Amino acid sequence: MAGRPSIVAHRGASADAPENTRAAFLLAMEQGADGVELDVHLTADGRLCVIHDHVLDRTTTGTGLVGSKTMAELAGLSAGAWFSSRHAGETVPELADVLSLFPAGAVVNVEIKNGPVWYDGIGSAVAERLSPWKHKLSLIVSSFDHKVLEEVHRREPDLCLGLLYEAVLYDPVGYLRRLPYPVGSLHVWHHLVTSELVHAAHAAGVKVLAYTADREEDVRRLVACGADGIITNAPGAVVRLLRAE
Ligand code: G3P
Ligand code: CA
């Protein structure tokens, strides 16, 4: 698992374009990222849409719960006007449309923001949607909801699963061994990544991806720890930094 870490653009190149939009995803690839991270919710008509918050207010011209709208209703909103007038034409993408934007082999880390407590069947919906892409893209399905990953695994056992966590765990590798599905990667708040954690994860055959690191000092520390991936809002800057090393 040695070599330079993968550079994964957090919600796309979200420092330079509105997060979780086509513009942000295309820009991330232009900037040299190895791939992207994106967030999904389930609409009222059972479609997977790409947006971070469970409400529309911060990043769109709409208001209220994402899950109370149909995909057609979301398509009528701007998801870029909040960022700049130049991006006013960006809409909330459907996951199905986003996957075709990426070149073969690109990392696409799909984060399920909320599991069945909010969205019945979202794990199965994600697994079904991603299944045709599993040989073309380097897919990861991640979530802070570790139960929904079991649903993903049942529906599509070939998909790589990433365990997201943001608090100090007593024994992350011991924990993942107890889960009823194989874990491909730990997705760890970057301040919690240590070389000891990376060694323990690698000994268990598991990668470590760190989120969300933008500052040069943080990126350098993660490289020194041996992290396998760096999830960043500023992939262009991280690409330049790692190329210069
Ligand atoms: O995938 C890591 C990171 O995206 C998790 O936090 O809130 O940015 O979705 P958040
Ligand atoms: Ca996310």
Please give a structural write-up:
This protein is an alpha/beta fold. It has one domain (6-56, 93-244): Phosphatidylinositol (PI) phosphodiesterase (TIM Barrel). The chain is built from 9 helices and 9 strands. It has an 8-stranded parallel β-barrel, surrounded by 5 helices. Helix 6 links the parallel strand 6 (160-165) and strand 7. The longest helix has 10 residues, at 146-155. The two termini are 18 Å apart. The structure holds SN-glycerol-3-phosphate and calcium ion. Residues 37, 39, 111 line the site of calcium ion (CA). Calcium ion (CA) is lined by residues 37, 39, 111. Residues 5-242 form the GP-PDE domain. This is Glycerophosphodiester phosphodiesterase family protein. GO terms for molecular function: phosphoric diester hydrolase activity.
Q: Which properties best describe this structure?
A:
245 residues, 8-stranded parallel beta barrel, globular, TIM Barrel, 9 helices, 20% strand, binds calcium ion, alpha/beta, binds SN-glycerol-3-phosphate
Task: Summarize it.
With 245 residues, the protein is of the alpha/beta class. The protein has a single domain (6-56, 93-244), classed as TIM Barrel.
Distinct small-molecule ligands in the complex: SN-glycerol-3-phosphate, calcium ion
Biggest sheet, spatial arrangement of strands = 1-2-4-5-6-7-8-9
Query: What is the CATH superfamily label?
Result: Phosphatidylinositol (PI) phosphodiesterase
For the terminal residues, how far apart are their CA atoms? 18 Å
Integer count of domains: 1
| Spatial extent as radius of gyration | 17 Å
Helix and strand succession?
Answer: EHEEHHEHEHEHEHEHEH
In the CATH hierarchy, what is the architecture at level 2?
Answer: Alpha-Beta Barrel
- Count of distinct strands: 9
Q: Uncertain runs with pLDDT below 50, 5 residues or more?
A: none
- Which fold does the CATH topology refer to? TIM Barrel
Count of separate DSSP helical elements: 9
Query: Structural class of the secondary structure composition?
Result: alpha/beta
| Shape descriptor | globular
Q: What's the level 1 CATH class?
A: Alpha Beta
Beta-strand content bin = 15-25%
Largest sheet properties: 8 strands, parallel, barrel
Q: Provide the residue-averaged pLDDT.
A: 97
How much helicity do the residues have?
25-40%
Pfam families: GDPD
GO molecular function: phosphoric diester hydrolase activity
Domain GP-PDE: 5-242
Protein name: Glycerophosphodiester phosphodiesterase family protein
